[in-house]
Design a protein that fits this description.
Elements: E1 16-18, E2 23-25, E3 44-55, E4 58-69, E5 73-79, E6 87-91, E7 95-100, E8 105-110, H1 111-114, H2 124-132, E9 144-147, E10 151-158, E11 161-168, E12 174-181, E13 186-198, E14 202-215, E15 222-237, E16 253-254
Parallel strand pairs: 8-16
Antiparallel strand pairs: 1-2, 3-4, 3-15, 4-5, 5-6, 6-7, 7-8, 9-10, 10-11, 11-12, 12-13, 13-14, 14-15
């Protein structure tokens, strides 16, 4: 199986709540006959975010503005400590394009080309779900569910890839996700925390930790990419169009 996981992103309402301090009121869905997973439903979504990206000796710390049009576009702007925009990118269902303003170059990745670097299956649906904290694949009634004290673990299989979704029994939100490519054992693990109420009834994780452990083809060496994400602000915009300004200057070189 070919490599597929994002390198440049350094890249998720029936819950009751107490509005004064945005603490969540918990309930137990184990008494229900149906597993009810709470997902964010929106037209447009935006965040102000801090990102810490680590891959080997390569470390990037930046502030980010992120905008999403559901099932269509993820737009981001990265600003390091100096306060000057260093990079801007746009992710669509076909590709990921990143403009490096500091070095005056740009990168274009198709999902097939990303597979050359990482041993993982990826598509736009997966990237959007990871960011929002939604299950990356729709959960069906006939899928295996393992009941635990704090979680209901929903196991999904897609070809040679296994998705383990850990749904909190108290909040009905996805709190952990593990995706394993069985032939290579390459693994993507994500943990979500600090759930807060956004725009009165959407529940969103303000912190997440993403870890990808993979082997490059032809080597036995394991590599680890880690992304820590902390959101300072999140907004849902329904019925209000959001802009996604993006262009590649003519003098920039493609890498």
């Amino acid at each position: 199986m070919k490599n597929r996981l994002l390198p440049q992103a350094g890249l998720i309402a029936l819950i009751l709540f107490v509005s004064c301090n945005k603490k969540l009121a918990y309930f137990d869905f184990l008494e229900r006959n149906k597993l009810d997973v709470q997902e964010i439903n929106f037209d447009y979504f935006s965040t102000k975010t801090k990102i810490n990206y680590t891959e080997g000796d390569n470390k990037i710390n930046a502030s980010a503005n992120i905008r999403i049009r559901k099932d269509s576009i993820i737009w981001f702007s990265l600003t390091p400590a100096l306060g000057i925009e260093a990079a801007r990118g746009i992710i669509t269902k076909d590709s990921l394009v990143v403009v490096d303003r500091l070095n005056k170059v740009y990168f274009v990745y198709t999902y097939a080309s990303l597979s050359e670097k990482y041993n993982f299956n990826i598509d736009y649906q997966l990237l959007e779900a990871i960011f929002l904290g939604n299950p990356p694949r729709n959960i069906k009634e006939n899928e295996r569910v393992v009941r635990e004290t704090d979680y209901a673990m929903v196991e999904q299989k897609e070809g040679e890839v296994t998705f383990n979704n850990y749904i909190s029994t108290k909040t009905s939100k996805l709190e952990k996700l593990s995706i394993v490519d069985l032939p290579t054992t390459n693994t993507l693990n994500i943990t979500y925390s600090d759930f807060q109420v956004v725009d009165e009834f959407h529940i969103f994780p303000f912190q997440s930790l993403i870890s990808l452990v993979y082997n490059k083809p032809g080597t036995a060496e394991a590599f680890n990419t880690q992304i820590e994400i902390e959101h300072n602000k999140a907004e849902v915009e329904d019925g209000k169009k959001m802009k996604f300004p993006f262009n590649i200057p003519q003098k920039y070189e493609r890498k």
